[in-house]
Amino acid sequence: MFLFRQSFKHCHWPIAFILLVLVAGCSFTPYPTLHPTPPTPSALASNPTTSAKQEDIWSLLQQGEPGYVVMMRHAIAPGTGDPPNFRVEDCTTQRNLSAEGRAQAVRMGEAFRRRNIRVARILSSQWCRCLETARLMNLGTVEAFPAINSFFSDRLTEPRQTAQVRQFIADNRSTPGVIILVTHQVNITAIAEIVPQSGESVVLRANQQNQVELVGQITPL
Question: Which CATH architecture group holds 54-78+86-218?
């Protein structure tokens, strides 16, 4: 810039004017428009209702249309995983619901009854904290469903179990009423790519191509 100004002192004004026009023309060259990077494709099928509001999700379930599956994480059970001596048939060896968790499970069931949502079936992991959550919801006879057992401690079974759950959702695409699956964080994350809190649910449905779609979430109560 200093050399440029010095040169002006020895130039006639027409030449200086031309130089200014040329410099100005160069300085206003537009930059290319930047476009945001598209999001990484999800393992779930694309669905325009993914961002539906909480009240809209409840309304969808109230309508009683077939195919909706509510995959719910068990109610509050303090801690992570299970003790080393865990045995599925012995609740005393497991991480179980706290008093707060039992109250939460009751509220979850009340939320469905208050809205007169038809529950076709309620299935549960064989873990005691899931079975207790499902029973305290009091929405019907609870069925044990090994495909939604936790694989937190044995990830080798994850692909097989996740495939079974996807197939179950597809097989029930025409089943009227809501199906509730009470399960674990890892199982829900494998299906929906969401890390739910205790008592939180994801609402899923299979489309006509039998791909599982994420419809929305129900926050903990």
Answer: 3-Layer(aba) Sandwich (3.40)
